[in-house]
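Hi again,

Forgot to attach this to my earlier email, sorry! This is the prediction with adenosine-5'-diphosphate bound. I've pasted everything inline since the attachment limit keeps bouncing my files.
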Amino acid sequence: MEHVDRTAPDSGDWAVEARGLVKTFGDNRAVDGVSLNVRAGTIYGVLGPNGAGKTTTIRMLATLLRPDAGLAHIFGHDVVKEPQIVRQLIGVTGQYASVDESLSATENLVIFSRLLGLGRKEARHKAAELLEEFSLTEAAKRPLKNFSGGMRRRLDLAASLIAQPPLIFLDEPTTGLDPRTRNQMWDTIRRLVRTGSTVLLTTQYLQEADELADRIAVIDRGRVVAEGTADELKASVGRSSLQLRIENPQKIETARKAVEQVLKVQSAVSPEGAKITAPLADADRVTDLLIALRGAGIQLTELSVQKPTLDEVFLTITGHGAGEDESKETDKSDRAGEVRR
Ligand SMILES: Nc1ncnc2c1ncn2[C@@H]1O[C@H](COP(=O)(O)OP(=O)(O)O)[C@@H](O)[C@H]1O
Ligand SMILES: [Mg+2]
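Structure tokens for the complex follow:
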């Protein structure tokens, strides 16, 4: 892919270095001392549920919001003191597409291209190429107000690819997308990094972070609660993970106490309240646990021992799930807005 070559100046190894970022809205500390290091040429995932502070963090790193405290450097440039340099090094695609409603997809991309200095013919060519890549060719002539959320997201990412910047922020790039489009998006993100960009993406999807990210920061209530590679995060919750589902959800606390006493670990209860997850160092203890549970009059409907997933990591670290309800809602609204062909 042809793109304007703007290599990062004197960047050292770090695309992002953030220390103790804070942003308060009223008495809500939306971002409460976030520190992140993103190595150039990698994909970094910021994983957390709705309201965790992901967008606010990105907005500060992208010079769109001034931090109340803390420091952030993008390729060595201070976001507060050198915002105009930082802006030349980054691309931001929002959770909501930043495109003009009344214009068609083609017109939007051509305008972006012209703004970035491409000639008229080149801009048309680039727009057509990107629309093809994102399977938007068919809808390209329609005004955007008829686009679904998923189509907008694709167009938004397409727009950010016109001038592939050294650092790309993707705020929940696949929330609400159907699986096929999500896979397409993942391929595009991987290609961005292969061709020299660094990507910082936020996600509510553990699987997405696991698939894509070289390193992951788990963020909850404005704080980084864990950081590392997907494997490191998984290892931090033990070699294997025990999952129990009980018949009577009202006994969940009793069951949980038994698990914690016998296994001598912290456990987590799933959002729907019937599943307990706990790290398991020694499989032999399961026998003791079953005896204890029977003694406490608790009936199991399911018991399994698995390798931990990032889901368990999240549950174990934060004590709650990662925004399942919200993603369902987004799916619904996306479908409602889908263009009928
Ligand atoms: N402009 C704003 N004004 C007031 N509160 C905000 C604003 N932006 C975000 N918040 C609040 O800050 C918290 C973090 O929001 P956000 O960064 O959007 O989280 P996420 O992107 O992880 O869902 C939430 O409680 C949200 O309501
Ligand atoms: Mg957000």
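The longest strand covers residues 14-25. The radius of gyration is 23 Å.

That should be everything now.

G.
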